[in-house]
Design brief:
With about 230 residues, the protein is mainly α. It contains 13 helices and no strands.
C-alpha cells in the first residue's frame, strides 16, 4: 500500500470512539426491548406472542441478511450502509410507537430494525476497523468495539427503563428513535477515503472465502460460540 493511502486512513482514536458509539447505540437499544413487552401488549390488547414474534423476526433477519449487508458495504462503502441503517433504525422505532396493528408492529420492529442492525453492528464496524487499524492492533481494536456493545447494554437498559417510567411505552420508543438517529452523524465520522477501498486489491469470491474460512479451526470455534449465543 502506498504512503499516501496509508496517511489517508482514519485515525485509531477516531475509529475506536465512533465505531464504539455506533455499536453502543445499536446493540444497547435492542437489549432493552424486553422492557416494552408488557406495556405494549397490554395497551394494544395483544398476546405476548405478538411481541415475541417481532423480536424473533428481528433476530432472524439480522442473522440472514448480515452477509449481504457486509458485501454491500464492501462494494459501496460502509458509510452509506451505516447512514441507511441509522435511518431504518429510527423509522423502525417510530413505527413500533405508532403501530396499533400487530402486522405493522412486526414489520417495523422485526423487518426494519432487523435490517438496521445488519448495517450498524459488528459486520460493518469491524470492516472499518480492519481497513484502518494496523494489523498488530487490529484484534485489540475489535475487542474494544465488542466491549462497547456490552457497555451499550449496561448503559441503555436503565435509560430505557427511565423513559418507560416517565413517558410511557409509545413516547419512550419515539425518544429512542431520536437517539437512534444519532447513528447517522456518527456514520459521517467513520466515512473512509475512497482510496482505502480502491487499494484493497482483493478479488476473492464468496465461494473462495467460505472455503478458506471452513478450513480455519478458529473460524469453526468462533462460529460455534456465536451459535450457542444466538440459540
Amino acid at each position: 500500500m502506498s504512503q499516501s493511502t496509508t496517511s489517508q486512513k482514519l485515525s485509531l482514536k477516531q475509529v475506536l470512539i465512533f465505531g464504539g458509539l455506533m455499536v453502543t447505540f445499536s446493540m444497547g437499544i435492542r437489549h432493552g426491548f424486553g422492557l416494552f413487552n408488557l406495556p405494549i401488549t397490554m395497551e394494544n390488547g395483544w398476546g405476548r406472542e405478538t411481541f415475541a414474534l417481532t423480536i424473533a423476526l428481528q433476530n432472524l433477519i439480522w442473522g440472514a441478511v448480515q452477509p449481504i449487508t457486509g458485501a454491500l458495504a464492501d462494494r459501496y462503502g460502509a458509510f452509506k450502509i451505516m447512514v441507511a441503517g441509522g435511518a431504518l433504525y429510527a423509522l423502525g422505532l417510530a413505527g413500533m410507537a405508532i403501530s396499533t396493528d400487530a402486522l405493522n408492529f412486526s414489520l417495523a420492529g422485526g423487518l426494519l430494525i432487523g435490517l438496521a442492525q445488519t448495517a450498524t453492528t459488528y459486520s460493518v464496524v469491524y470492516g472499518i476497523l480492519g481497513r484502518n487499524v494496523a494489523a498488530e492492533k487490529r484484534v485489540w481494536a475489535m475487542g474494544i468495539a465488542a466491549a462497547a456493545g456490552s457497555f451499550g447494554q449496561f448503559l441503555m437498559i436503565p435509560v430505557e427503563q427511565g423513559l418507560l417510567s416517565s413517558l410511557g411505552a409509545n413516547d419512550a420508543l419515539l425518544m429512542l428513535a431520536l437517539m437512534a438517529s444519532l447513528m447517522i452523524p456518527i456514520a459521517f465520522m467513520l466515512r473512509e477515503p475512497k482510496a482505502i477501498n480502491q487499494h484493497q486489491g482483493n478479488d476473492q469470491t464468496i465461494k473462495q472465502a467460505l472455503k478458506e474460512a471452513i478450513r480455519n479451526p478458529s473460524f469453526k470455534l468462533l462460529t460455534l460460540g456465536y451459535f450457542v449465543c444466538g440459540f
